[in-house]
Design brief:
single chain; about 80 residues; elongated
Length: about 80
């Protein structure tokens, strides 16, 4: 009785099928995430009446009134000019 080492003697069809199913899974997951992101962002409207404020303060105000969250590098945001 000969013991096979896992992965070495696999037929090419099995490996090819595994690669194909992995690629399809990744594409399908990406597609679903894109649909969800596009659907949410197009229906959110925000009206704010702010004077000259920093971008950081603007993001905080938007986060207060919506379910949106911003991810940013603080050092990069602090370098930006105030917005109106």
């Amino acid at each position: 009785m000969e013991k096979k080492t896992q992965g070495i003697d696999e037929p090419k069809r099995t490996r090819r099928g595994l690669r194909l199913s992995t690629r399809l899974s990744v594409v399908l997951m990406f597609f679903c995430l894109q649909i969800q992101a596009n659907g949410f962002s197009q229906h959110t409207r925000v009206s704010l009446n702010l004077g000259k404020v920093s971008v950081k303060q603007l993001f905080l105000e938007i986060e207060k009134v919506t379910d949106l969250a911003f991810v940013y590098n603080t050092n990069d945001i602090d370098r930006l000019e105030k917005v109106d």
